[in-house]
């Protein structure tokens, strides 16, 4: 049998909860190309998704569509890895932040995202592995990192990214630096930090160009470390970050690597693609070019 199945994994609760109303349109567009859509409403755990994927003949699957935010993409990627799927992926960004979709320049309109999803142009995509769990866009820790987890879903749906910013402002008085040990290629760095980003893409929390040269297929993470500094300097660094010019700060450290091991005695938030991350220590590795992902043109 020729490969003619397109799997649609979708989160009906993402963003404004309107995606399900577009199912008929999506199915019709793919049917017009001679492709059969197989939809599956995803859960918050990858195991049921993996079981669904395993119920199909993967040789018949030509593409996997993932509709949702970064957390949904993360869950579906983990499910695809559990089921040993290698079919190309197309992201339909219907969540609140959609950071990886922003990096890949996937439009927010249904017409725009479907044009890319129905196209044939793909690029290779690295993914991250942290304590046995895979991630797509980012792993981060420290101050303000768990904002997305603390923001109520109703606030996210109503205010979008503004909901994150409002929550973040409330948390600023609680920010304190803490000690970490970061081991990279056998060398251990002792740092007192406010927060740290391990990025695959260039967008986090809706902020673009957090690491302007980040690439999803360069075989490296872009690691940003916001080191300890006086309170006024920290506020200045945050201001530089909001203006995308944080590299001008002497307190922001930048490292490129494909592996790192992070230890701390401080109980601090860990985030993976907008969801709660594992406990310390963190063993983070890059898996190069594991998937191919649909884009409209060459993307870094």
Give a brief description.
The protein has nine helices and 15 strands. It is of the alpha+beta class.
Provide the fold topology.
Layout: E1 5-10, H1 23-31, E2 36-41, H2 46-54, E3 61-68, H3 70-82, E4 89-93, H4 99-103, H5 110-117, E5 122-130, E6 133-135, E7 138-142, H6 147-150, H7 153-159, H8 161-171, E8 178-184, E9 187-199, E10 221-227, H9 231-242, E11 252-257, E12 259-263, E13 270-272, E14 275-276, E15 282-294
Parallel strand pairs: 1-2, 1-3, 3-4
Antiparallel strand pairs: 5-6, 5-15, 7-9, 7-13, 8-9, 8-12, 9-10, 10-11, 12-15, 13-14
Q: How big is the Rg?
A: 19 Å
Low-pLDDT stretches are 155-166
**What is the CATH domain class of the largest domain?**
Mainly Beta
- CATH-defined architecture of the largest domain: Sandwich
Q: Please give the largest β-sheet.
A: 11 strands, antiparallel
Q: What does the average pLDDT come to?
A: 88
**Order of helical and strand elements:** EHEHEHEHHEEEHHHEEEHEEEEE
Q: How many strand units?
A: 15
What amount of the residues lies in strands? Answer: 25-35%
Structural class: alpha+beta
N-end to C-end Cα span: 35 Å
Total tally of structural domains: 2
Instruction: State the shape.
Output: elongated
CATH topology term of the largest domain:
Tumour Suppressor Smad4
> Helicity level, as a percent range?
25-40%
Number of H/I helices: 9
């Amino acid at each position: 049998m020729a490969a003619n199945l397109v799997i649609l994994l979708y989160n009906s609760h993402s963003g404004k909860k309107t995606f399900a109303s577009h199912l008929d349109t999506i199915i019709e567009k793919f049917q017009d190309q001679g492709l059969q859509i197989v939809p599956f409403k995803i859960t918050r755990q990858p195991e049921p998704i993996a079981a669904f994927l395993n119920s199909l003949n993967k040789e018949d699957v030509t593409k996997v569509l993932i509709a949702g935010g970064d957390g949904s993409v993360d869950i579906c990627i983990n499910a695809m890895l559990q089921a040993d799927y290698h079919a190309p992926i197309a992201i339909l960004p219907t969540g609140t932040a959609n950071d990886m979709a922003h990096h890949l320049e996937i439009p927010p309109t249904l017409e725009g995202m479907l044009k890319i999803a129905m196209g044939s142009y793909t690029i290779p995509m690295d993914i991250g592995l942290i304590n046995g769990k895979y991630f797509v866009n980012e792993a981060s820790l420290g101050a303000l990192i768990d904002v997305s987890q603390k923001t109520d879903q109703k606030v996210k749906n109503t205010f979008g990214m503004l909901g994150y910013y409002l929550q973040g402002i409330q948390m600023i008085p609680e920010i304190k630096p803490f000690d970490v040990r970061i081991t990279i290629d056998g060398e251990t760095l002792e740092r007192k930090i406010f927060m740290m980003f391990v990025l695959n893409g260039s967008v986090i929390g809706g902020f673009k160009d957090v690491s302007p040269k980040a690439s999803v297929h360069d075989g490296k993470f872009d690691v940003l470390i916001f080191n300890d500094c006086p309170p006024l300097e920290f506020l200045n660094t945050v201001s530089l970050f909001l203006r995308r010019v944080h590299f001008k700060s002497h307190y922001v450290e930048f490292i490129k690597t494909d592996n790192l091991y992070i230890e701390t005695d401080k109980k601090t938030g860990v985030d993976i693609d907008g969801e709660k991350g594992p406990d310390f220590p963190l063993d983070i590795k890059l898996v190069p070019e594991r998937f191919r992902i649909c884009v409209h043109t060459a993307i870094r």
